């Protein structure tokens, strides 16, 4: 038990050295046994065949010389083999243990919350290089997650600060008699209370969406055209009020001021099995996001096309656009890195995160593309057919 406990504390270098010593020792011992048992007998027979008389002084002297030479050769071989084995093992263990120590140091820093730690590529073999790359990838993901968490908490605090400040100011005014209870006071308090309730609901929903815990209300088979028409009709009045043109899939220019429906090409009347209300929520989020960032006189277009076993729905606008730096982050909660998602345009910064969560819950994807600021943006939803 004590030996086992002692072995548990041995370093990798010690284990490699010991293993190499055992291998070399076993080889030398095997060679010595073979030379001691087989060699003298063969040498004796060859001397007899060469004409030496049995038990002659020459024969005995030759056999003694052979035994001495054999012992010296085996001893020298043992010394050289042990020296070479230990030198090679020492160098190999040094090349292995130092990178492993570096990786362990980085892992320790990560476990202590230092997500900026990175491991250098040890160049000690593809296995250790791959381990270092994997550890660095984990570190980058942890650092990104931590940055998102901090930004989430900061933005959440900012979103809550205004309504709480307004509610607190009105309550203080009522308590001090400076403010009277009027319908306007009630309306302000109610509006900001509802804003907090909506914020709480949005945060809970985006968390469920990102964790794949969206409840399946009613999974049905529905045509893509029906989804597009329903989503467009739901936001038509908002587009009309802002003066933004809404163009439907299939090329039908469904300007909101006059058209009553949205044209969908006959070939796109494919069926998808989805939660209809959730997908409508996703499309509505995309359309309202496009409307929010498209100035009056601009255009938002909805298209749909099949691609193999999938159908692609795209919402394209001629609005603010998104810079290449911020494009990878547009689906993050509360992200407002540029004009595409700043507070001046309104919104809580959660709609696109919820939309992506809904897409993933339906085994689909949601991606964004923009040529840059002022060049508009395109959001593509991909869903499996059938």
Biggest beta-sheet profile: 5 strands, mixed
CATH level 1 class label of the largest domain: Alpha Beta
CATH-assigned homologous superfamily of the largest domain = Histidine kinase-like ATPase, C-terminal domain
| Structural class computed from helices and strand pairing | alpha+beta
Q: Please give the count of helices.
A: 9
Task: Tell me about this structure.
This protein has 386 residues and is of the alpha+beta class. The protein folds into three domains: 113 residues; 83 residues, Helix Hairpins (Orthogonal Bundle); 166 residues, Histidine kinase-like ATPase, C-terminal domain (Heat Shock Protein 90), CATH 3.30.565. Helix content is 58%, strand content 11%. It has nine helices and seven strands, in the order H-H-H-H-H-H-E-H-E-E-H-E-E-H-E-E. The strands form two sheets. It has a five-stranded mixed sheet. Strands 1-3 form a two-stranded antiparallel sheet. Strand 4 and strand 5 form a beta hairpin. It is elongated. The two termini are 63 Å apart. About 6% of the residues have low confidence.
């Amino acid at each position: 038990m004590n030996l086992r406990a002692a072995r548990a504390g041995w370093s990798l270098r010690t284990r490699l050295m010991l293993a190499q010593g055992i291998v070399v020792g076993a080889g030398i011992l095997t060679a010595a046994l073979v030379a001691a048992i087989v060699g003298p007998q063969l040498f004796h027979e060859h001397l007899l065949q060469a004409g030496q008389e049995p038990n002659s002084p020459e024969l005995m002297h030759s056999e003694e010389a052979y035994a001495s030479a054999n012992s010296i050769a085996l001893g020298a071989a043992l010394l050289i083999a042990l020296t070479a084995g230990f030198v090679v093992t020492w160098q190999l263990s040094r090349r292995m243990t130092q990178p492993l120590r570096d990786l362990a140091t980085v892992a320790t820093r990560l476990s202590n919350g230092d997500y900026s730690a990175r491991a250098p590529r040890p160049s000690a073999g593809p296995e250790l290089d791959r381990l270092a790359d994997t550890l660095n990838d984990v570190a980058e993901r942890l650092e990104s997650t931590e940055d998102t968490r901090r930004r989430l908490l900061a933005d959440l605090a900012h979103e809550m600060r205004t309504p709480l400040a307004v509610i607190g100011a009105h309550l203080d005014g009522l308590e001090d008699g400076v403010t009277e209870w009027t319908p306007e006071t009630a309306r302000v308090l109610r509006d900001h209370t509802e804003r907090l309730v909506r914020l709480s609901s949005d945060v809970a929903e985006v968390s469920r969406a990102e964790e794949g815990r969206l409840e399946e209300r009613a999974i049905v088979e529905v045509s893509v055209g029906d989804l597009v028409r329903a989503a467009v009709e739901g936001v038509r009045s908002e587009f009309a009020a802002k003066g933004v043109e809404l163009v439907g899939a299939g090329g039908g220019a469904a300007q909101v001021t006059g058209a009553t429906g949205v044209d969908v090409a006959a070939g796109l009347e494919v069926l998808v099995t989805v939660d209809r209300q959730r997908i409508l929520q996703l499309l509505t989020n995309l359309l309202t996001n496009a409307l929010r960032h498209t100035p009056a006189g601009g255009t938002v277009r909805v298209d749909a096309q099949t691609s193999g076993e999938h159908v692609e729905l795209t919402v394209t606008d001629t609005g603010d656009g998104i810079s290449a730096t911020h494009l990878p982050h547009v689906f993050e909660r509360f992200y407002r890195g540029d004009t595409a998602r700043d507070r001046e345009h309104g919104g809580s910064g959660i709609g696109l995160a919820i939309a992506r969560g809904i897409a993933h819950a339906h085994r689909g994807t949601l991606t964004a593309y923009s040529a840059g600021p002022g060049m508009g943006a395109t959001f593509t939803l991909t869903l499996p057919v059938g």
